[in-house]
Amino acid sequence: MQELKEMIVKKGIVLDENVLKVDSFLTHQIDALLMEKIGKRFAKLYQNAGITKVVTIEASGIAPAVFAGLALNVPVIFARKQKSLTMNTELLTASVYSFTKQVTNDISISTKFLTSDDCVLVIDDFLANGQAALGLIELCRQAGSDVAGIGIVIEKSFQNGRQLIEDKGYRVDSLARVKSLKDNKVEFVSEEE
Ligand code: G4P
């Protein structure tokens, strides 16, 4: 998605060879107009997939997921990293280890929001090592829901997340694929690669 790539080049900050800071439009301050276009793009990619729910994880997945849900006209569910006081129903749960942050989160979604009748589009802001996406896929599996695919805003293609998810047979659609962050420069995977 050209507009997203241009925003990454203009406003993204390369912190080191592994980390891209995009807090001015995606992970802290949110560019709602760009997010709306991102949501429409995901909706177009999955318009014939029979999506009934969009599933993401708090916090930074919520913005692109809400706009995808709006464009697809389906509810959006975000997995919680901490149990809420009012979460007293049965829960679907999975452990997600973050290599970046070196912490494990037990993520959860209430069983009442995902069922075997659902066909899910999983959305997340970043795809790095794929652990968050795999955790969300696991919650869908526990609910008996189908997973039509994984929609990612920014994929770091030099990490192994896509491989792990595709190896399990799932479709992955990333709107920007970053090939390298070396020399303080963002290099994208060319469309042909
Ligand atoms: P994984 O889910 O693909 O395995 O990713 P990983 O554990 O490596 O990443 C953990 C967290 O760090 C995730 O956010 C992910 O979105 C974020 N992250 C990974 N790589 C980058 C990066 O290059 N830049 C930025 N800005 N974030 C990155 P999270 O813990 O779920 O946090 P949040 O959504 O609550 O902010």
From TrEMBL:
It is found in: Cytoplasm. GO terms for molecular function: xanthine phosphoribosyltransferase activity. Residues 34-160 form the Phosphoribosyltransferase domain. InterPro entries: PRTase-like, PRTase_dom, Pur/Pyrimidine_PRTase, Xanthine_PRibTrfase. GO terms for cellular component: cytoplasm. The keyword Membrane does not apply. Xanthine binds at residues 20, 27, 156. Keywords: Cytoplasm, Glycosyltransferase, Purine salvage, Transferase. Its EC number is 2.4.2.22. 5-phospho-alpha-D-ribose 1-diphosphate binds at residues 128-132. Pfam families: Pribosyltran. One of its GO terms (biological process) is xanthine metabolic process. It catalyses: XMP + diphosphate = xanthine + 5-phospho-alpha-D-ribose 1-diphosphate. NCBIfam families: PRK09219.1, XPRTase. Converts the preformed base xanthine, a product of nucleic acid breakdown, to xanthosine 5'-monophosphate (XMP), so it can be reused for RNA or DNA synthesis. This is Xanthine phosphoribosyltransferase. It comes from Vagococcus vulneris. The lineage of its organism: Bacteria, Bacillati, Bacillota, Bacilli, Lactobacillales.
